[in-house]
Design brief:
Strand order of the largest sheet: 1-2-3-4-6-9
Shape: globular
Strand content: 15-25%
Number of helices: 11
Structural class: alpha/beta
Helix content: 40-55%
Largest sheet: 6 strands, mixed
Oligomer: single chain
Distance between the termini: 37 Å
Bound molecules: 3-methylmercaptopropionate-CoA (MMPA-CoA)
């Protein structure tokens, strides 16, 4: 795959690991990297069942590459933000679940990238911030849509107005990550989760990442109908029938086995 030197790709079974590899710049996202992320997701092999986004160095991502900001006028600023939206939308609404392994700075556009993923595993060094207020700019990578859904408008307002940081534990309590793990164990944890995800039926993973967010945001009347249709589509597959038969025959894992 033709990717910039700021991205690396590895494969572990059915899991693809995309690594932000610009640690000397704290994995700040320049345009080439953001477009590389888009290319990676657009050309994901069909047999990949889950993606992990990892990072080199001590920080997940310091956000937008501020050195590329100076040249931008108003219109190109809109186009730039829309480009980020397009790329992150491909992560959120792409073909497979995506896990981010967080550590150190998860700030500005780095938090926007993390928020576009489906699961976030935070090492204890993780801290979250939206320093756009300090830089005289505004979020542009989807934060005003995604972050309030995770932590509420009031907390995002506080982060932006005061430059406040949340640490890993605070972030998990608020919903910025689903897991907090020891330093250096984020990738291993994510790969374990990815392996489980890859073992799910594809129709269920599809329903979880494509149908669930839309149903949750829909008017309840339409939401219940969409849920019923998605449930029927999933349960009608041969795969679902085989899994239920395996459970009834005592051949499947129990909930208590996990
Ligand atoms: C960068 C960037 C960057 C580091 N763009 N070059 N994001 C921010 O406002 C966060 C800015 N960064 C920081 O606050 C700190 O760098 C960190 C807390 C993340 C890390 O601190 P530290 O002491 O480990 O590293 P450092 O010495 O500050 O940075 C190392 C190098 O990375 C240095 O370059 P060097 O050539 O002098 O070695 C930094 O200039 C460079 N660097 N962060 C460019 N962000 C779609 S809209 C999204 C809007 C935003 O994301 S705004 C938030 C931007």
């Amino acid at each position: 795959m033709d990717l910039p030197s700021t991205l690396r790709v590895a494969r572990v079974g059915k899991v693809a690991v995309l690594t932000l590899a610009r640690p000397h710049k704290r994995n700040a996202l320049d345009d080439a990297t953001v477009l590389g992320i888009e290319r990676f997701f657009a050309t994901l092999p069909g047999d990949i069942a889950c993606v992990v986004i990892d990072a080199e160095g001590d920080h997940f991502c310091a956000g937008l590459d501020l050195s590329e900001m100076a040249e931008r006028d108003t219109i190109s600023g809109i186009q730039h933000s829309r480009m980020w939206h397009r790329v992150f939308e491909q992560i959120e609404s792409g073909p497979v679940p995506v896990i981010a392994t967080l550590k150190g700075a998860v700030v500005g556009g780095g938090l926007e990238l993390a928020a576009a993923t489906h699961l976030r595993v935070a090492e204890r060094s993780t801290f979250y911030a939206l320093p756009e207020g300090m830089r005289g700019i505004f979020v542009g990578g989807g934060a005003s849509v995604r972050i309030p859904r995770l932590i509420g408008v009031a907390r995002m307002t506080d982060l932006m107005l005061t430059g406040r940081r949340y640490d890993a534990e605070e972030g998990a309590a608020l919903g910025l990550s689903q897991y907090v793990v020891d330093e250096g164990t984020g990738l291993e944890t994510a790969l374990g989760l990815a392996e489980r995800i890859a073992g799910n039926a594809p129709q269920t993973n599809f329903a979880i990442i494509q149908a669930l967010p839309r149903i949750a945001e829909a008017n309840p009347r339409e939401g219940y109908l969409m849920e019923a249709m998605m449930a029927a589509i999933a349960q009608g597959t041969d795969d679902a029938k085989a899994r239920m038969r395996a459970f009834l025959d005592g051949r499947a894992e129990k909930v208590t086995d996990r």
